[in-house]
């Protein structure tokens, strides 16, 4: 039997079979009383005013009482073969002042005449009283068919609740819908994800909208209901994704806050409204005791980001938990692939290794986050929970390993956003940076800013990650980008307050005192260049002189501020950075650079007594010893000097999973003496004797180091940050819909470039020698590949200083070129760039920057190759 009526408003007379409305005057009066009481409850003020939660509960009780009484009057009683079932707000027990009544009149295949009589007796009084109504009349099979065909209807029916009449009939529907949902979820899951993504595209992200849609936006009430649906399908644990002590105390509290705000929005607007408008925000904030509109915006952003993170985790968990069918059941369990010490990849997520002990490893949090950023893989929710429960605080100052992991995280571009958000939502980011709490979800005070202050800082670091090769200190650029606005929200000049906080942060994370001073000055003067360039006469010599005096003649600080100014502007909002502003700042920087004195040239480090001792012990020697840090080691390698030796030494280390953080390349009495500071990718380093044997085999040509490095990189099973992965639930080409990679990938697409490689030249003090500096992103065996290119070109390495600052390499080589001409330098630079990581595509044009092209502060122009 087809349904009798469905939709909003009265059904036509020829469909309902009912007489005119005047035939039911007594019923209309009772419904009018219901509407009057609704208005009184909503409009009540002073001592009679109910709080948001109390108002919702009273409205639920009021409408349940009316429906139960009216149903009994119409014969909707136990055993009658009819039942009233509520969905929507009444079904969830959280009816808002101006929410629709979403009702189903369920019947057991009764006669059309009887059903029409009861339906009209139930619907018409509500219509006459102007109570918004969304209604339908169905049998159980009809309702199940609708739920099977329509995702929206299915999600609504999963929240259905019996109100009046035959409870067995209601239970048959509710149980049937849930069973059908669990049975079909494997096939319906892609449609569920697409449904959510379409809603997010239409309504936007609540956390970063000026007038957010609390119901349908990303991070809103619908997302919590989606999590509930996935929990019913037994794919997730619903709302249990965040710890009670995490920011906003978890998704359940976040949901209640948004629900309270939406309740007050209805009450103040006098009608059903989902968008919080600016003109209503102050009144809503005051009614809830939150504060003004800025305080309200902060609460909304915090709640939405908590729910959004929980939704990401829920979708990813659900995708991995989908039941398998057919041959898929025979698929082997995913392999656990090592990524870092105590960190592995499992089933498309970052998890802890089985032997990891978080309570004894304070640096594990940052290794997990940096591994997520390097690979683009999300961090498992259970891993975050375990870290939050057991990981201790990092001692101050941080060990160098922890600082390096932080820099890797910050240098990974857009891939840093997801792990930082995950750490922040679970309370771990605040442990690393306690100062972050003051800017978390802090709304901007002007409309030009797109993001909240904390997200703006992260976005600035994202842009700075594509500029690291413009500066000689990429580590300070990334750190300055992350904390330049950290002084906001404290009631004083944020640049001055931020400079003091920068000292606090720099000392905690283990920077050298001189680097702490530069970091503090970056924050103090981060608005200097944009302000002067756009408001002063650049042709006036006093303008550039003022910049130089303010920065106390520090070339590196000028260089850093130029890059930070662009990153800050780009992260502020559309149109803030443009050709006009870029040209003004570039002109100012060039004028200021001419006034700067030259800094000291880079010089070789002297040999240590240990290096001399190993060099004099024999032709081939390897000494491995612990260095600063639990997982950091010093490796001294000695061999008779010959062409190609540096490439082979560095290659042997790379093949053994030893990542070079720094190196000192020198000579002693005809032997090459190279000292490397390395960190194993995971586990313990190999024995020194094994490294010595491999070095001898490489020197004798028995081991082709570069060929093995190419094969190792090609066969690497772990994706790199250049891999573009999908958003939650998005399909991956060539993979079945239930494949975890297709439905659970949650990394941010790679929209920005890795900073382009740059080769800079300067003259060395000694005649016949030249200094070459390479700035590029790191890759497996980079030092081995670069030194091989130089040696193949006939260039002899007199000495070298190698430094890996996060994921950016700044290597200085003192070379004797076979032919020192501009053309030879350019040719060598091009060959070196060819073995560096290839920049990823980005949405905006790449720019070589506004800083000086030379390095070392000599005043001699360099030749950037990018």
UniProtKB/TrEMBL annotation:
It catalyses: [protein-PII]-L-tyrosine + UTP = [protein-PII]-uridylyl-L-tyrosine + diphosphate; [protein-PII]-uridylyl-L-tyrosine + H2O = [protein-PII]-L-tyrosine + UMP + H(+). Residues 634-711, 771-843 form the ACT domain. Its EC number is 2.7.7.59, 3.1.4.-. Residues 453-554 form the HD domain. Its cofactor is Mg(2+). Keywords: Hydrolase, Magnesium, Multifunctional enzyme, Nucleotidyltransferase, Repeat, Transferase. InterPro entries: ACT-like_dom_sf, ACT_dom, HD/PDEase_dom, HD_domain, NT_sf, PII_UdlTrfase/GS_AdlTrfase, UTase/UR. Uridylyltransferase (UTase) activity is inhibited by glutamine, while glutamine activates uridylyl-removing (UR) activity. One of its GO terms (molecular function) is phosphoric diester hydrolase activity. Coiled coil: none annotated. Residues 722-734 have a biased composition (Polar residues). The keyword Amino-acid biosynthesis does not apply. It comes from the Bacteria. Pfam families: GlnD_UR_UTase, HD. Residues 1-26, 713-739, 839-866 are annotated as: Disordered. GO terms for biological process: regulation of nitrogen utilization. Residues 1-338 are annotated as: Uridylyltransferase. PANTHER family: BIFUNCTIONAL URIDYLYLTRANSFERASE/URIDYLYL-REMOVING ENZYME, BIFUNCTIONAL URIDYLYLTRANSFERASE_URIDYLYL-REMOVING ENZYME. Belongs to the GlnD family. Modifies, by uridylylation and deuridylylation, the PII regulatory proteins (GlnB and homologs), in response to the nitrogen status of the cell that GlnD senses through the glutamine level. Under low glutamine levels, catalyzes the conversion of the PII proteins and UTP to PII-UMP and PPi, while under higher glutamine levels, GlnD hydrolyzes PII-UMP to PII and UMP (deuridylylation). Thus, controls uridylylation state and activity of the PII proteins, and plays an important role in the regulation of nitrogen metabolism. Has four distinct domains: an N-terminal nucleotidyltransferase (NT) domain responsible for UTase activity, a central HD domain that encodes UR activity, and two C-terminal ACT domains that seem to have a role in glutamine sensing. This is Bifunctional uridylyltransferase/uridylyl-removing enzyme. It comes from Gordonia desulfuricans. The lineage of its organism: Bacteria, Bacillati, Actinomycetota, Actinomycetes, Mycobacteriales. The gene is glnD.
């Amino acid at each position: 039997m087809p349904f009798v009526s469905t939709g909003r408003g009265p059904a036509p007379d020829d469909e309902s079979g009912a007489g005119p409305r005047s035939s039911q005057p007594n019923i209309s009066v009772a419904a009018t009383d219901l509407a009057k009481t609704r208005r009184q409850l909503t409009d009540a003020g002073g001592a009679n005013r109910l709080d948001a939660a109390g108002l919702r509960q009273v409205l639920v009780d009021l409408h349940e009482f009316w429906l139960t009484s009216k149903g009994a009057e119409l014969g909707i009683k136990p055993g009658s073969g009819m039942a009233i079932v509520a969905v929507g707000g009444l079904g969830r027990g959280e009816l808002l002042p101006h929410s629709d009544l979403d009702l189903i009149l369920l019947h057991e295949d009764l006669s059309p005449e009887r059903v029409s009589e009861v339906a009209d007796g139930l619907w018409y009084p509500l219509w006459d009283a102007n109570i918004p109504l969304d209604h339908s009349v169905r049998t159980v099979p009809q309702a199940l068919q609708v739920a099977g065909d329509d995702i929206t209807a299915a999600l609504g029916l999963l929240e259905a609740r019996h109100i009046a009449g035959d409870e067995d009939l209601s239970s048959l529907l509710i149980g049937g819908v849930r069973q059908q949902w669990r049975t079909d979820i494997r096939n319906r899951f892609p449609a569920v994800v697409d449904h959510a993504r379409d809603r997010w595209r239409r309504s936007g992200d609540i956390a970063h909208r000026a007038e957010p849609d609390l119901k349908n936006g990303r991070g809103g009430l619908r997302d919590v209901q989606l999590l509930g649906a996935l929990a019913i399908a037994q794919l997730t644990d619903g709302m249990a994704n965040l710890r009670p002590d995490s920011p906003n105390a978890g998704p359940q509290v976040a949901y209640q806050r948004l629900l309270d705000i939406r309740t007050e929005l209805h009450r103040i607007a006098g009608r059903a409204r989902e968008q919080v408008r600016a003109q209503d925000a102050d009144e809503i904030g005051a009614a809830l005791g939150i504060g003004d509109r800025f305080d309200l915006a902060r609460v909304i952003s915090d709640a939405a980001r908590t729910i959004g993170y929980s939704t990401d985790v829920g979708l990813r968990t659900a995708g991995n938990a989908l039941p398998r069918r057919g041959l898929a059941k025979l698929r082997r369990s995913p392999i656990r692939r090592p990524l870092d010490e105590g960190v592995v990849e499992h089933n498309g997520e970052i998890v802890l290794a089985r032997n990891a002990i978080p309570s004894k490893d304070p640096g594990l949090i940052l290794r997990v986050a940096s591994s997520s950023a390097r690979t683009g893989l999300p961090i498992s929710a259970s891993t975050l929970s375990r870290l939050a429960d057991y990981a201790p605080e990092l001692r101050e100052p941080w060990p160098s390993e922890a600082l390096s992991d932080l820099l890797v995280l910050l240098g990974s571009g857009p891939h840093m956003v997801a792990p930082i958000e995950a750490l922040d939502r679970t309370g771990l980011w605040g442990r690393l940076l306690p100062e972050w709490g003051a800017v978390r979800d802090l709304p901007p005070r002007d409309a030009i800013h797109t993001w909240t202050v904390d997200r703006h800082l992260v976005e600035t670091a994202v842009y700075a990650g594509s500029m690291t090769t413009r500066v000689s200190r990429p580590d300070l650029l990334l750190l300055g980008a992350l904390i330049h606005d950290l002084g906001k929200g404290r009631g004083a000049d944020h640049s001055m307050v931020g400079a003091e906080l920068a000292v606090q942060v720099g000392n905690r994370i283990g920077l050298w005192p001189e680097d702490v001073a530069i970091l503090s000055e970056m924050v103090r003067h981060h608005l200097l260049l944009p302000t002067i360039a756009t408001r002063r006469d650049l042709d006036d010599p006093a303008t550039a002189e003022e910049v130089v005096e303010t920065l106390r003649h520090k070339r590196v600080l000028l260089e850093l501020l130029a890059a930070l100014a662009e990153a800050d502007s780009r992260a502020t909002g559309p149109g803030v950075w443009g050709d006009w502003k870029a040209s003004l700042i570039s002109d100012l920087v060039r004028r200021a650079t001419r006034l700067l004195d030259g800094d000291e040239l880079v010089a070789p480090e002297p040999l240590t007594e240990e290096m001399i001792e190993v060099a004099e012990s024999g032709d081939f020697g390897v000494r491995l010893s612990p260095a600063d840090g639990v997982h950091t080691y010093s490796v001294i390698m000695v061999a008779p000097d010959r062409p190609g030796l540096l490439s082979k030494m560095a290659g042997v280390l790379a093949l053994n999973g030893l990542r070079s953080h720094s190196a000192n390349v020198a000579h002693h009495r005809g032997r090459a003496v190279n000292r490397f500071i390395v960190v194993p990718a995971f586990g313990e380093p190999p024995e020194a004797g094994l490294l010595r044997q491999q070095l001898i085999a490489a020197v004798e040509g028995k081991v082709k180091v570069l060929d093995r490095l190419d094969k190792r990189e090609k066969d690497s099973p772990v994706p790199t940050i250049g891999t573009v992965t999908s958003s939650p639930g998005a399909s991956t080409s060539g993979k079945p819909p239930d494949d975890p990679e297709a439905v659970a990938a949650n990394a941010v697409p790679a929209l920005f470039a890795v900073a382009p490689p740059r080769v800079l030249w300067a003259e060395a003090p000694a005649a016949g020698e030249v200094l070459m500096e390479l700035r590029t992103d790191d890759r497996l065996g980079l030092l081995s590949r670069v030194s091989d290119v130089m040696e193949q070109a006939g260039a002899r390495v007199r000495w070298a200083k190698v430094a890996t600052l996060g994921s950016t390499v700044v290597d200085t080589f003192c070379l004797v070129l076979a032919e020192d001409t501009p053309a030879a330098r350019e040719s060598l630079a091009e060959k070196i760039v060819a073995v560096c990581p290839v920049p990823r595509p980005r949405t905006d044009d790449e720019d070589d920057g506004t800083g000086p092209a030379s390095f070392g502060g000599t005043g001699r122009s360099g030749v950037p190759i990018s």
